[in-house]
Amino acid sequence: MASVATPSSSPSIGGCNVEKLYPRLDFGRRVVVLGIESTAHTFGVGVASSRPPYILASVKDTYRPTTGGIHPREAAAHHVRVAPRLLREALDAAGLGIEEIDAIAVALGPGLGPALRVGATIARGLASYYGKPLVPVNHALAHIEIGRLAACMEDPLVLYVSGGNTMVTAYARGRYRVFGETLDVALGNLLDTFARDAGLAPPYVVGGLHVVDRCAESADKPWPLPYSVKGMDVSFSGLLTAALRAWRSAGAAARPRICLGLREVGYGAAVEVAERGLAHTRKAEALLTGGVAASPVLQEKYAVMAGLHGARAGWPPPHYAGDNGAMIAWVGVLNYLAGVTVSPEEAVVRQRWRLDAVEAPWR
Amino acid sequence: MAVEGRLLFRGAEAELYLVTWGDGVALAKVRVEKPYRHPAIDKRLRWRRTATEARAIRGALEAGVPAPAVYLVDPPSYTIVMEYVEGACKLADIVEREFEKAKELTARLGRYVARLHKAGIAHGDLTTSNVLVRGDELFLIDFGLADLRAGLREKAVDLHLFLRSLESTHPHVVEVMMESFLEGYREAAGQEAVRELVAAMREIRLMGRYREERRTAWRSA
Q: Domain coordinates of chain A in residue numbers?
């Protein structure tokens, strides 16, 4: 097992008027929240404030298996190992002592049980020991809100794409409503599983580009692969199977075409369902968020799609597209200002905590 | 063919034009290029969806499911010319405005979808926005994602998509609308067919990522 520390520098994203984004919150009150993310392979700690520059620190360390995919227990062991160092680094980067933190926020789900429990245990411990309020945060909601803050969007249609999620959502009546999602595997999982089974990964991302994008670079045309959109839902399992079958049976010369076909069908279908959501909701903004939102290829397609409907497209910088502690800290600030806290005894992890089950009382 | 007419509506995948047709008018649906897709994939999809939509509408009409009649299909220009249902609104609007009427219409929709499924066709995009209402008449539209050799799974996806459209667009009336729909479906297809369909939808919903299922009448198998 290897682990790669990412640089602890976190780009500034504080140029937005948050009062327009959160009209029901009183930002006159200065609160500082420490947030812990541990839902999957990344352990992240962030510090966020209700005052500019909003994000005071964001450090993370990602468990990267040398072979195979994420084993939940291995990810949890990684998180336990790096947590004390990252907590210290986050507070140092923010220039704060723990006594200056108003509340502890933690992602309680959705995610992998063993990984989630590491963050939850640490957060409960910190809250109890230092007598701080504990703020529960939904991981999917955090991806959306950090994206909204970074791209400064008041009311976007959202495409949330990561290793575990592919979702089209927008806010209505007190919470985010899910218009479409994957019926089987997520977009990130499609790319990673293909790359792994085809022998292209790990590592999955080289120089900011996914290995499937790299492999596709020399292709002249896409290999024909099944394209499955149902309403605003997508299905990628048939695509994955067909691409892997083609990979094994076709010659080496055809491989770039298979990568291009997989990439174009996968990204194309995800952007198409977002377009359906945008046409349905008639929003003026289109946000792309989650780990796969760091893909320049997907960003370009998404911007083109939004342009077709006169909507402004945006996405967070790569550091905040992938899992991070700052997004948990930021929703921690929002929830804390809105009075959403939980007692340590009640702060249990929820592996299948759905986005549309969460109240967003600050919009 | 080149379409000449007045642009009525620009949707996610097609533009709708009002065109002259014989002595009257018709609706021309043109699937437009999507520059975010690879051109080869884009052409293949638009061609196939145009052809599928025309075939599915024909199958629906033959099964006794009202849909706008098809006058002309031209896959090379990704165009279908069809009956223009004048003065219609969407079922989605009725759900928000006239609750009692919407309940009755939704039960009728359930009967129509059961007929469609019996004919081996799944709609593929069944939402309250893809059902037109004119007076007491109801029309199914947007068959581009239809499956003409649908098995139980594809039919269950229809039910899932309909439930999803209620959850996302009409969250306050999900239970009662779903019950009306299934009541209509039951009338046309029988209790056993509904039981199978609901069980298959439940499977699909549990397969999805991070599903949180509540146990209510149609959610429990």
A: 2-146+320-357, 157-282
Both structure tokens of A303: 């911007």
Known catalytic residue at B125: yes
ipTM above threshold 0.95: no
Residues in CB range of A270: below 8 A, 6 or more apart:
A159, A161, A166, A187, A234, A298
Instruction: Check A352 against B211: CB less than 8 A apart.
Output: yes
Residue ranges making up the domain that contains B142: 89-207
Chosen domain end from B82, B107, B131: B82
Domain end point (choices B63, B82, B101): B82
At a CB cut-off of 8 Å and minimum separation 6, what does A212 contact?
A191, A194, A195, A200, A259, A262, A263
CATH number 3.30.420.40 given to A157-282: yes
Number of domains in chain B: 2
Give me the CATH number covering residue B28: 3.30.200.20
- A1-5, A195-199, A230-234, B142-146: which has the minimum mean pLDDT? A1-5
Q: Are residues B164 and B75 in the same domain?
A: no
Contacts of residue A188, Cβ cutoff 8 Å, sequence gap at least 6? A161, A162, A163, A164, A166, A290, A291, A292
Does B212 score more than 70 pLDDT? no
A182:B168 CB<8 A: no
> Is the CB of A181 less than 8 angstroms away from the CB of B145?
no
Classify domain A2-146+320-357 at the CATH topology level.
Nucleotidyltransferase; domain 5 (3.30.420)
- Closest approach of A97 to chain B, Cα-based (Å): 36
Q: Is the pLDDT of residue B169 over 60?
A: yes
Report the CATH number at residue B111: 1.10.510.10
Nearest to A181 among B37, B172, B208 (CB): B208
Which of the four pLDDT bands, split at 50, 70 and 90, describes residue B3?
confident
Would you state the structure tokens that stand for residue A240, as one six-digit string?
């994955």
Does residue B42 share a domain with residue B20?
Answer: yes
Residue A82 above 50 pLDDT? yes
Two tokens at A177?
């409503």
pTM for this entry = 0.94
Sign of the CA dihedral running A174, A175, A179, A183 = negative
**Catalytic residue among B23, B93, B125, B136, which?**
B125
Chain B residues close to A221, C-beta within 8 Å:
40
| More confident site: A10 or A58 | A58
